[in-house]
Amino acid sequence: MPREIQHMGLPLRITFKDDDYIYQIIESKQINNTTNEIELLLNGEKIELIRDTKLVWKQKNDNQSLDSELVQALGRSVSLRLRM
């Protein structure tokens, strides 16, 4: 059975409310300026973010496992790094 291979870049760091978080972008080659969904690996856990029409980042499927401000900060960080 073939294994699904996911390409991730180098670990990236963001500081939020005086705490450092390390994350990786899953499949960054598929992200461009029209991308509204991204998958990240944060502290070993896969999270999915979606950008709404007001350009606000949220966790996909109304999953609220993370602080909404942290989610917004992660989305902005990815957007700036990849010029989304």
Explain what the structure shows:
By secondary structure, the chain is of the alpha+beta class. Helices cover 18% and strands 35% of the residues. The chain is built from one helix and five strands; from the N terminus they run E-E-E-E-E-H. It has one helix spanning 68-82; strands at residues 12-16, 19-26, 37-42, 45-51, 57-59. The protein has a five-stranded antiparallel β-sheet, with helices on one face. The radius of gyration is 13 Å and the shape is globular. The model is unreliable at 1-5 (pLDDT under 50).
Topology at a glance:
Blueprint: E1 12-16, E2 19-26, E3 37-42, E4 45-51, E5 57-59, H1 68-82
Antiparallel strand pairs: 1-2, 2-3, 3-4, 4-5
